[in-house]
User: Fold this.
Amino acid sequence: AGMRVAVVGAGVSGLTATKCCLDEGLKPTCFEQSRDIGGLWRYTEHVEAGRPSLYPSVISNTSKEMSAFSDFPYPEDFPVFLPNAQLLDYLRRYAERFCLREHIRFGTTVVSIQKRPDFATTGQWDVVTEADGKQTWHVFDAVMVCSGNFSEPSLPLHCFPGIEKFQGQYFHSRQYKHPDVFQGKRVLVVGMGNSGVDIAVEASRVATKVTVCTGRGAWVFSRVFDHGYPWDMVFNTRLMSLIRNSLPGPLLWVLINYRVNQWFKHENYGLQPEKRYSLPVLNDELPSYILTGRITVKPGVKEFKDNSVVFHNCPEEEPIDIIVFCTGYNVSFPFLEEAVVKVENKHASLYKYVFPTHLQRPTLAVLGLIKPLGAIMPVTEMQARWVTRVFKGRTVNVSSPMYQNTVQTGHVLSSPRPKTDFILKTDCLVYTDKLASFIGAKPSLLGLLCRDPRLALSVFFGPCTPYQYRLGGPGRWEGARQAILTQWDRTLKPTRTRVPAGSSSPCPSLLTVMGFLLLLAAVVFGF
Assistant:
């Protein structure tokens, strides 16, 4: 019989993990503590313990063509960036299309996952689950942890002197649902991630005053990029990736700096990041809200008083009524022993972000922990495709020198060299390609150029959409070529609603010629 695999969680990663198990002939059982699928993307009015929490206005930061699973494009009439309800609808369609629900056990919490006594030879795990107050004990051949990293809020109050004196209300962004709590109040938002900026913008429509404070600053991208195309379809192409990864550091920095300051000069808005390489924040309104005085940006908090705050390098106190801490989340696996996945400094020591580095047998994998500059769906799906093949012993196995090497050096996620860290954190394309090459699903540009030049141009110059990883190799999908050639049609359909939709993609002819030469060079130099 097929290997039995436990999948923890039925969100984005859990669903694709379950599907990849089925594709490889494994037997998945997916445990989901809540009563439905969708994980992070399933909005509930109340914050539920141990579950991620959304506010109603959340819209995906990545466009639908870049956020699709590789063999299941979004319906063409869905908007280009997806409100959370529509993303959930897509996940439901995905589950239905591949008959995933029958493998999911709802209302079932994973209590513990421990190595069996004979782990060194079998690689098996003891899994204890709880449903309706009853505990059940199972044995699984392998485990895929897909519980995400947005459930345990990080609220380091000890870093904010005087918070115990503060008389007003304060809460973590996880608790935020509706802006009416800010009505007529003076609001302080601490932290400048995606949630922080979203909440500040929403609050400023009803609040008396909104201040965002950030020690680090941040690059801000708009979803609406050059000529109104979606940012990730312009930014995440193979051509751009080749340029990003072949330029020397200082030159790359000049280029990035120029690029990110094109929309507005960050320095003038008090947003210039401290660190050169930081993940950008996506928000379409922030600069105009700063420009119209609805939001003020300040440096980090020095201390809180009874009903005011003092910022670093600012002598005067600022009166405030309510604080939202947008200080992120801790990665935690309450059901795993500390020895299996060591988490330090919000990072876990995992080979390729997936396999714990010191297990004798690679039968436990963690999915979806990576923070790509781009969509998580195709990345976590590729992780699942690779992992299920490792479980079957098809690809990189533990005896391979590469894996051994990581075990010995205990390679930790956060690398001391900022450039590689930046690339790892952001260049999902390089990372996904690497995993794809492990299973033989990476598209070969040279092969395509000979067989199908039109497709090759699309693959190299166009957005690196997930369908590219279904053109060949295991899990090849017949519809992949068509999906790539029609990706711009699906992108333009929902917005070209007043004029008949023709096909257009941002690729003028002179560029094509120049690019073709570059493509040849790329092929010659073996990209």
In short: The longest strand covers residues 109-115. The chain has two domains: 4-151+330-430, 155-222+263-327. The mean pLDDT is 90.
